[in-house]
Amino acid sequence: MSDDRLKLTVLGSATPYPAPGNPCSGYLVSCGDTHVWLDAGTGTLGPLQEHVRLGDLVGVWISHLHADHSADLLTAYYGLLYADIARPAPLPLFGPPGTADRLAGFLTNGPARSPVEDAFAFTELHDGHEARIGPLTLTTAAVSHGMPAFAVRVEGGGRTLVYSGDTAPCAGLVRLASGCDLLLCEADGPQPADEEHVHHTPEEAGETAAASNATRLVVTHVARATSPAEAVERAASRFAGPVAHADPGAVFVID
Ligand SMILES: [Zn+2]
Questions:
Q1: Given this model, what pLDDT does residue 197 score?
Q2: How many structural domains compose the chain?
Q3: I need a surface site. Which of 37, 72, 115, 119 has the fewest CB within 10 A?
């Protein structure tokens, strides 16, 4: 029997490079047989296939073009065009403006530009972009990461999850996450004092969850100097609901 509940599977959550046993940022959102890959961080394409074949995905959504969120698009392209996968049409890919050219810039090895549009059907994201994919609705909001970057609200099975992508605390994320059942929020901070504020600290992740009235919080993209347990404890100091860490392989059923 098909399970039509909204599900979040953590493929990886390490930053800014993979850890042993933990790829970079990547998640699978599922509702029944509909599966969308959120962020194609380094190393996530392997674990993704423990749940769904690359050719059976219905879409990919990329928060921003830092490599720890997008690098596995490069080898997904090889899979989609040059291996054993036969799709009737390119795989829909929602990403920041310029995603197609960035991929082609890396993949092109000769005088002719690599045909990235044969692998992916690109849609450039903007603040307020909405996509309907099977039973899922994906609503995108611009967030604050010092470059074009987005968060996404995924609705399906009567439930809602919101993924922050990478961002400092910002009103756009709180608005997007308003009343969500699960907030998957980065907690990478603090940054060195002389750098721009482009991430949440764990405490700020808790504050964003509280401000948006989220039911539960999952912290992810935790700085390597911080243990997952410490990040959870610090976030929970600012948020009364349940808090967990995005352990690789963890599955959160949202019901
Ligand atoms: Zn980033």
A1: 86
A2: 1
A3: 115
